[in-house]
Amino acid sequence: MRALELAKKDLKSEVRTKSSLSLMLLFSLTAAFLFSAAISNPKEIFSPLLLLIFLLTGILGYSTSFLKEFDSETIEGLKASPLTPQQIVAGKMLFNIALMFTVQVIIFPICYALFDVSGSFIHSFLVFAACNLSIALTITALSPLLSHSKSREMLLPVMLFPVIFPLISSTVSLVNLALTGSTDYYQLLFVAAYTGIILSISMLTAEKVL
Amino acid sequence: MIVRAKNLSKKFGSAYAIRNVDFELDRRKMAVLGYNGAGKSTLAKLIGGILRPTDGFLEVFGKNPAFSPEVRRKIGIASHNPMLYRELTVRENLEFYSKLYECDADIEELAETFGFERLLDWRVSELSRGFMQRVAFAKALINSPELLVLDEITSGLDISAKETILDVLKKYRGCLIFTTHVLDEAKFCDCFLVLKSGEKAYFGRKYNEAVEILNEGS
Description:
The structure holds two protein chains of two kinds. Chain A is mainly α. Chain A has one domain. Chain A has nine helices and no strands. The longest helix of chain A has 30 residues. The two termini of chain A are about 20 Å apart. By secondary structure, chain B is an alpha/beta fold. In chain B, strands 5-6-7-3-8-9 form a six-stranded mixed sheet, with helices on both faces. A three-stranded antiparallel sheet of chain B has the order 2-1-4, with helices on one face. Chain B is globular. The mean pLDDT of chain B is about 90. Classes of the chains: A mainly alpha, B alpha/beta. Chains A and B meet through helix 1 and helix 5 of A and helix 2, strand 5 and helix 3 of B.
């Protein structure tokens, strides 16, 4: 419940400042427009483009909620409260999941239309949401590690890509299949297992990183 | 015993901020005296559970506060860093912390005590530093703590704000740890810990002796 209170506080702050959301929307829209203009047949590579847009958007947006707490030193208030480190991480994850869904609800249909994609919209939206959730949780789990680094903007992608690598090919093939209306349940199970592992590791290491 | 520290040390990189500090504190008001860089804030953060000791032993209510949410629930902490969310209103900040501590604090009453009742719906970013400190102090009292840790809470405040805070502290019935470099402010305390370059220079009940030791060689 306390984790939920932390997520609600972050949502309230975000509604008021719109700092992460506007940054993420602006970046993803720009990237989507650039790709649609620069690539002659973007629908052929819809799923890798989508993954690239959401991955880069995530790097920009999901780490900010944690880093803001460190920059403003409000993390000390959270650490002094009865919140456990696991509850702090869980609260940030819940907030980032809400952020992720908001961005996906707005950007996914725009990409779908801009890239002139044909296929099952709802199916591909849901399958991509499962993969995107994994990306959001991975970035959230990594961001407190970078809190004391001066070059954290550079370090996050460097740390993220090897960690996220197993998810890339699964996401691409799952979204491609979803557009035809079918699902590879083994790949989906792999994404779920990957998400579970990331969640477990971040909870087990929360004491150390916070 | 509410606080027990034995050979307590905290290192940042290769430098010790606190080194081999020992003291025991029961229901008393303790002032931690020391000049800049003496380790007062580090000690406050260790007792508040924000930092973990590098070496030695620290027990607050029988457990290390950094690893015990139940212990942290009994502690209220305020420092020169107000630990408030600037984009939220004063009321929202106090409500948030009240929910984290799972207590049903009377925010209006707290605001009235510290004289910021008309500012409850202002954003923290719109407050002056003095009022921010008052809100931070109110935040520390939100859970009716058994142990109150205050780190240079009066620094940068005007006389009336200082008096309001010191009046509340004098009436406070729990255990208090109050760090300051303004020696006169510590007079109401009943025991004194003097820190010099992170090490304990004095721990006892005599104010004059504590001040004398603090000023030796400075």
